[in-house]
């Protein structure tokens, strides 16, 4: 029987269509509107050791072909996450679908959270994600993406502390992002999650002020897909790590474009705001296309480089 089983380092998933962190929440929020079993995985909303209130409102603003956001890693902190969120996650999703995402300011923050996640849920989840990408926080995240040695040391420390597969979501908006990616690979990561959304701004002409309370924020949606495809293309040429690519994916053709550029899996994000069943629709289209191929579907990964 044909399937789209996907291997990312030491982790194996039922298919390559993931729910992107943040936009997919914790997965269970979408249960009334879509079939969660169809997700290859859900990268859960990032949590930190202490509760974070996030950035001041407004936090979301619609722009042509996309959405600006400035959430600031709002989350209830680890105690509430472990006690209240994870039981609902594990009730709604199978263990092989769950990627737990942790955030912090220091290497020690990430290591401590990684160890606690593994101690509590190690046999019930697929992978641990290090969120070193978010540009909407005052400290920590951007540093690990712009300093290759810091990224290497972070990944190496977490990888040494846990036995779970380790995925790294990093910020591709810095000029040296390929150097950082190579450092993350050398540190022992199992996969890279890209693309971080570029920053933008919207001015509300009625108030004559920025529409976001934080002024600027990342833009997501179809507007950034060409940027994401280029980042994926360049990362595929630089590192051997499996790539989970995201940025403006709304159709199966969008997902296929990323795969041809080098992605082994794709994250569907803001498309779910308009259509909670978006990931399901992307998977349906990919299955119809890939099951008609004479070659294994994995031959699509990076095929544009060999054309």
In short:
This protein has one domain: Aldolase class I (TIM Barrel, Alpha-Beta Barrel), CATH 3.20.20.70. The protein is 35% helix and 19% strand. It contains ten helices and 16 strands.
Describe this structure in words.
The protein has 307 residues and is of the alpha/beta class. It contains ten helices and 16 strands. It has an eight-stranded parallel beta barrel with strand order 3-4-7-8-9-10-15-16, surrounded by six helices. Strands 5-6-14-11 form a four-stranded antiparallel β-sheet, with no helix packed on it. Strands 1-2 form a two-stranded antiparallel ribbon. It is globular, with a radius of gyration of 18 Å.
| DSSP strand tally | 16
CATH class: Alpha Beta
The helix/strand order is: EEEEEEHEHEHHEHEEEEEHEHEHHH
Task: Provide the CATH topology.
Answer: TIM Barrel
What is the C-alpha radius of gyration, as a whole number of Å? 18 Å
CATH level-four homologous superfamily name = Aldolase class I
Furnish the topology, listing elements before pairings:
Elements: E1 6-8, E2 11-13, E3 17-19, E4 41-43, E5 60-63, E6 66-69, H1 78-92, E7 98-102, H2 107-121, E8 127-132, H3 141-146, H4 148-161, E9 166-170, H5 177-187, E10 191-194, E11 199-200, E12 203-204, E13 209-210, E14 217-220, H6 225-238, E15 243-246, H7 252-261, E16 265-268, H8 271-274, H9 278-290, H10 303-306
Parallel strand pairs: 3-4, 3-16, 4-7, 7-8, 8-9, 9-10, 10-15, 15-16
Antiparallel strand pairs: 1-2, 5-6, 6-14, 11-14, 12-13
């Amino acid at each position: 029987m044909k399937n789209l089983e996907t291997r990312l380092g030491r982790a194996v998933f039922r298919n390559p269509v993931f729910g992107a962190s943040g936009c997919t929440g914790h997965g269970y929020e979408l249960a009334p509107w879509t079939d969660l079993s169809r997700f290859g995985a859900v990268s859960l909303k990032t949590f930190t050791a202490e509760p974070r209130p996030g950035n001041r409102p407004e936090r979301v603003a619609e722009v042509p072909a996309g959405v600006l956001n400035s959430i600031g890693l709002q989350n209830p902190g680890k105690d509430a996450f472990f006690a209240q969120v994870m039981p609902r996650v594990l009730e709604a999703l199978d263990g092989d679908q769950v990627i737990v995402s942790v955030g912090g300011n220091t290497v020690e923050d990430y290591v401590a959270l990684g160890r606690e996640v593994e101690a509590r849920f190690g046999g019930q989840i697929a992978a641990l994600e290090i969120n070193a990408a978010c540009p909407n926080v005052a400290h920590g995240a951007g540093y690990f993406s712009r300093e290759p040695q810091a990224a290497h040391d972070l990944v190496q420390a977490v990888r040494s502390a846990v036995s779970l597969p380790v995925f790294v979501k990093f910020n591709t908006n810095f000029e040296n992002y390929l150097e950082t990616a190579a450092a993350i690979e050398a540190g022992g990561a199992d996969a890279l999650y890209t693309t971080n959304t570029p920053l933008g701004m919207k001015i509300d002409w009625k108030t004559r002020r920025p529409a976001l309370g934080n002024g600027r924020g990342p833009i997501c949606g179809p507007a950034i897909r060409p940027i994401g495809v280029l980042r994926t293309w360049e990362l595929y040429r630089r590192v051997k790590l499996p790539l989970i690519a995201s940025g403006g994916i709304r159709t199966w053709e969008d997902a296929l474009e990323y795969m041809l550029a080098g992605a082994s899996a794709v994250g569907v994000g803001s498309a779910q705001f308009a259509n909670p069943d978006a990931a399901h629709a992307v998977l349906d289209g990919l299955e119809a296309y890939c099951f008609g191929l004479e070659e294994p579907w994995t031959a699509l990964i990076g095929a544009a480089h060999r054309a």
